[in-house]
Amino acid sequence: MRGNWLGHTTGLLATGALAALVVVPLGAILVRSFSGGSTSVPGFAGGPLAVLGDPYYLGRIGFTALQALLSTILTVLVGLPSAVLLARYRFTGRRALTAAFTVPFVMPTVVAGMGFLALVGPNGVVGVDLRNTLAIVLAAHVFYNFAVVARLVGGYLEGIGPRLEGAAATLGAGPWRTLARVTLPLALPATLAAATLTFIFCFTSFGVILILAPAARFATLEVEIYRLTARLLQLDAAATLAFAQLVIVGALGLVYTRLQARLAVRVDQQGAAVRRPGPGGTALLALDLLLIALLVLAPLAALVVQALLGHDGRFGLANFAAALDAPATIGFTSLGLAVRNSLTFAVISGALAVSLGLVFSYAVARGGWRALDLLSLLPLATSPITLAFGYLISYPLLVTTVWGIPVAHALIAFPFVTRTLLPALRSQPPDLAAAAATLGAGPLRTFLRVELPLLAPSLAVATAFAFAISLGEFGATLLLSRPEYATLSTAIFDRLGRPGAANYGSALALAVVLMTLTTVVMLALQRRVRTEF
Amino acid sequence: MSLHLRSLSKRYGGTVAVSGVDLAIERGRTLALLGPSGCGKSTLLRLIAGLERPDSGSITLAGTDITGLAPQKRAFGVVFQDFALFPHLNVARNVAFGLVEQRRDRAASAARVAALLDMVGLAAMGERRVHQLSGGQQQRVALARALAPEPAVLLLDEPLSNLDENLRQGLSVEIREVLDRVHNYAVYVTHDQVEAFSIAEQVAVMRAGVIAQVGTRDELLDQPRDAWVARFLGHENVWEGEKARRVAEWVGVRLEAGDALLLRSDLVRLADQEPSRTGVEASVTRVEQRGLQWSLELAVARWATSIHWSGYAREFGSPPAVGDRFTLAVPPGAWRRLADATPTVAPDAYTDSTVTADRG
Predict the structure, then answer these.
(1) For residue A170, what is the nearest residue in chain B, using CA coordinates?
(2) I want to staple A310 with a disulfide (CB 3.0 to 4.6 A). Which of A84, A318, B37, B120 is the partner?
(3) CB pair distance less than 8 Å for A170 and B102
(4) Rounded to the nearest 10 degrees, how much is the dihedral formed by the CA atoms of A357, A359, A362, A363?
(5) Residues 48-67 of B with CB under 8 A from A
(6) Within 10 A of A522 (CB to CB), how many other CB atoms are there?
(7) Distance CA A272, CA A162 (A)
């Protein structure tokens, strides 16, 4: 089956698409960061050293790394107990809970940000204003990423099954000793992988910072690149920072794939039955769930409550009504337009991401284009702001059309799509395709009649993932956006930036709409979601 | 002094895995649990180890009730079917795992690990990662790890089933030697009767969650309790119901209603065409070669049935062929009445597959 015409065609297509949509923009950033852009003298005078030597920017890199490290440690501390408990105990509502864990991860940044504002912002439900503190940034990052730890580590432990812990028990180790000597060491590679991924996500944090801690001292690299590009128009400095971030995140991305490869080797045993918790286990489980519920539900609940609470203090739909008939004259995006734009972009980018993902996965799994797999890491290492910035400087004409945003969204969703489709395609027994061939089906017919139908469940998951990612995407959208292309995310941010309780109320209402849309998409694939990071 | 299981039962949802098992395991006499896959033998082993809680029944060790005792408190040595070696620890640390739990001091523990690795022939492999070992080596590590804390009871769950044929023979001899030396309570689960008989003094045949019969090799082969056990152990000449009654009448064996009839064909000899007063005439209807053995289907007109017979070339002048006539010398002791023919549970898939052996 290796190297048939379909494999070569898809390989060429995927290479071309990734080259044009990722390699060229990143190359443009690289060139720009070294050459100093339009200035005709290629040299280092005003280039990378100047920016990276600047103590201010060094400080930004330092802060970005520090907050990511702290966020990661906290996230692992919160996520690990859930991972172990979920993997080892069977209890009522376990499936629903596992699905609920995914909610924060796919919740748009803007929604999470608004949720935390509603909870502990200036006019928050709790009454404590934590805006512009490190604490609120860390809390939002834990909210965002603990599911990565819980599901990645939990899924891994579940795959190993409780056999080894059983073996430890027969050798005299009690529950806590088994946890310390077997379970946690076994979970180490998965924990490291999850921690690396969390670090990457927090390192490139954008929306959370912009909404919850807009003060300059909390700016991450991603925020700094955005400001240099959109506000100060210092594209050369932005290119240099983007390049620096690309190198750091790319290196971490490599570490992550290395760790992930180790996971694939280790999970070779069948998962066995998990048991119901005893009294001690029940107590731990209850405690853990309570903590998670507080972390996950509190911001979202606060968001809904505040959105329904008009500025006169009465419950009602006043905020929603205000969001609906926005005065277009002064640049407000109405709720209707924002929803329409968001859905349109989500549909287009979902179709793009899944088509590209299919072509790519076929080329890698069936066409023998192994090296392509490395290229697919590039989008993973590329933050939304970096990607959008790359488009701005390499395809200035594309970004003026309606296509700029959906193409960027598709590329952002691409790693998630391939991580779903590629393993599914690879796990199909090769004999199936061989059987189809012996029955007279060529590569394309085999793909259409055998491989594609078998991929259907994974395709559904990938599509929904891409859809949800586009729906909630903020950074790239913000950088590429024009008023007529405003999405729910950017409209919320726009309202938030304008003074007055009415605007804040509209922002809350829009956030609730976005949250509901995302939840509906997630519910649609609730049963099928597997951890495919 | 014994390990006693009393009316032990375990069900998973609607499936009965183990049902009312009574067994006594004597010190120094290895017991094998022999049965087809899915008969509940592994579950029974996990119940003994404490990895599963029985729904009812009790387990006592030397008079002490241990039914509710956690597995780590029992600390019975278990050799798992897939070995369950800890992938994050090297060979020596795997073996030392239970010793650490016993808080043994470092030097004593290291010495014991070295001695055990030496015993299983892996003296130089202590630093290896477990995934660098072959299947046979992993099996030895699993055995050494289970033995290290000197457990009161050693439980082995199909320890050889994941290994290839050549390895199994050698290792089963080694395991037998180790069990003889350790001289404690040992239970060995297997689906392979050769393995069961070569390793254990006592064999409990298990079927669909219940113990069908317990005995030594000779007891089980000579007097299987019912048709199912007889066929499971490889007897080919078993008759049930009307057919059993008819054949028994011909050969003069008394059967009660519901009994089955067994002919131990290994006691039957073939005499060349000479008719004799004690013999019975038979003609070959099918010839099959199984390795060095010849397997014949013989029609016996006088009994109005066919029997299966196996033997080596030395029994014949020339290779047997369909149509050859022989006289069978059947000693009176070759017939067995299987008194307990009523199946204790509904017939399962395994009876179906063994029925084909009964072409008589």
Answers:
(1) B75
(2) A318
(3) no
(4) -110
(5) 49-51
(6) 21
(7) 6
Q: How far is A255 from A249, CA to CA, in rounded Å?
A: 10
Cα dihedral across residues A391, A395, A396, A398: positive or negative:
negative
Closest CA to B221 of B203, B207, B243: B203
Q: Which of residues 93-132 of B touch A (CB under 8 A)?
A: 97-98, 100-102
pLDDT confidence band for A429 (50 / 70 / 90): confident
Nearest CB among A169, A173, A266 relative to B87 is that of A266
DSSP 3-state helix, strand, coil percentages of chain B (rounded to 5)?
35, 30, 35
Which regions of chain B does DSSP assign to beta strands (E)? 2-12, 15-26, 31-34, 56-61, 64-65, 77-79, 153-157, 185-190, 202-207, 210-215, 238-239, 260-263, 269-272, 280-290, 293-300, 305-311, 325-329, 335-338
Neighbours of A390 (CB within 10 A): 27
Contacts of A388 (CB under 8 A, 6+ apart): A408, A475, A476, A477, A479, A480
What are the pLDDT digits (tens) for A18-57?
888 888 888 888 888 777 544 433 444 455 556 677 778 8
d(CA A55, CA A438): 67
Q: Using CB atoms and an 8 Å cut-off, which of residues 162-201 of chain A contact chain B?
A: 163-164, 166-174, 177-178, 181-182, 185-186, 188
**Closest to A509 (Cα-Cα) out of A521, A491, A531:** A491
pLDDT of A269 above 70: no
> pLDDT above 90 covers what percent of chain A?
11
Q: ipTM surpassing 0.85, yes or no?
A: no
Q: For an interface test with B, which of A170, A182, A276 has the most B Cβ atoms less than 10 Å from its Cβ?
A: A170
Residues shown for chain A: 533
A321 touches chain B (CB under 8 A): no
Token pair 């995302």: residue? A518
User: Is the pLDDT score of B342 beyond 70?
Assistant: no
| pLDDT for the residue numbered A142 | 92
**Is A295 a residue whose pLDDT tops 90?**
no
CA distances from A133 to A209, A406, B98 (A): 10, 34, 49
Q: How many Cα atoms sit within 13 Å of A42 on the Cβ side?
A: 5
